[in-house]
Structure formats: structure tokens, C-alpha cells
Amino acid sequence: MNKNIFAVAIAALGFIIGLGFLGNAIKNRNKSENTISVTGLGTKQFTSDLITWSGSFSKNNSDLKSAYDELAMDRKVINDYLLSKGIQQKEIVFSSVDIQKQFRSYNDANGNYVQGEFSGYNLTQKVSIESKEVSKIENLSRNITEIINRGIEFTSSSPAYFYTKLATVKQEMIASATKDAKERAEKIAENSGSSLGNLKKATMGVIQITAPNSNEDYSYGGTFNTSSKEKEASITIKLEYEVN
Length: 244
Prior knowledge:
Blueprint: H1 2-33, E1 35-47, E2 50-61, H2 64-84, E3 92-94, E4 98-107, E5 113-131, H3 134-142, H4 145-148, E6 154-156, E7 160-162, H5 166-191, E8 196-204, E9 208-210, E10 230-243
Antiparallel strand pairs: 1-10, 2-5, 2-6, 2-7, 3-5, 4-5, 8-10, 9-10
């Protein structure tokens, strides 16, 4: 009899403990569900303060030394021209010379490509400039035909624009996006008759830099526009709050 009473007591105690665990589980589940997740957006427009520009020039000659000498003459003309436009010597960088052998090629009667005899050398060199004088380099890139008019086979690339204070911009956008997200969460809680509790989680998105009013697509790893002098940066912050 005593054994039966003891067994019943043990079973009852186990049942009570089980109810306690179940109650805590339900309570914790409801607590985890009683949250608000919001996403805030921070944006900022700014003007690039650094520009890079490059161009290439080449010479062809059957004699390698002659081709190199002719290229060196063009290099001096280009360097002097850039200096005359107010570009500092330390900003002008010439790459190493790329040398390519050329061959006369043709298609045979069956349409197969045939590499013929050696026809000479093609030497190409690149000049690049990095400067904080954005307007000056912009004007230079637009008027580069002055070099071509001097008999130099010159190909100019489009300028690329950058911003050196991007870290500061990012901090400002993070603060703005966080404030935006919190205000959204407070409004949602207020409209539902609740109040915000503790912040549970914050997740930051990647920075996206595009041209203002453009239709550029955002990318998973972040977009970084370099073709536009004027830029617009944006970042998102996702906040998750408990609700009281």
C-alpha cells in the first residue's frame, strides 16, 4: 500500500513539473513571437572629390628599336602637353611598354585562318592620372583631341569618379537608417497599443552607390558607381524589438 502511494506521489510530482515546463515553453514562445521587425533606410548625396583618367598610345614598326624610339617621342609630347595643362608631374604615371608581334593573316580557300609572315611590332603604352582637381581632369579628358592633332595615335578612356570620405558618409547613413527604423517601430507599437521593449537584433545591409535618379540595379554585394561625378549612397538597417 505504501509503495502504491509513493508511486502515485512520484507520478503526480512529475505531472506538476511537466506542466511547469510546458507553461514556460508557451510563455517563451509567446514572448519570442511578440516582436516587431522593421527596416530603416539612410541615404546621402555627395559630389566626388577624386578622379582618375587614362589613355593609351601606340606605334607600329618592323624594327623594334625604331618603334620604341618613336613611342618615346610620343610619350614626351604627351607628358609635356599634360604639364602645360597644369597637371603635376607626380600625378602622371606611364605604364610599362606592351610589345606585340604582328603577323599577316588570311583565310585559305577552305575558310581556315592562316597566320602568315611576321609584319612588324606594335608597341603600346598607357598614361594615367589620379587627381583631386576633378574639374581640371574632366576638361582634359574632353579636349584630348589636341594630342591626336599632334599626330599621336591616342585613345582616351572615360574618367572614373571616387569619394575619399566614404567612411564618414557611411557612418552618417547608418545613424540615419537606425533612427528611421526605430521611428517606424515606435509608430507600429503605438498604433497597436503597445510600447517598444529591448532591442533584440540589428542587421546592416550593404552600401549601394549609384548615380542620382538613375535606374541602376542594386546588387547583393553592393553597387559602386564610378561613372558619375554626382553620387547617391544608401544603406538599410533592420531592427528587431521586443514589444511590451
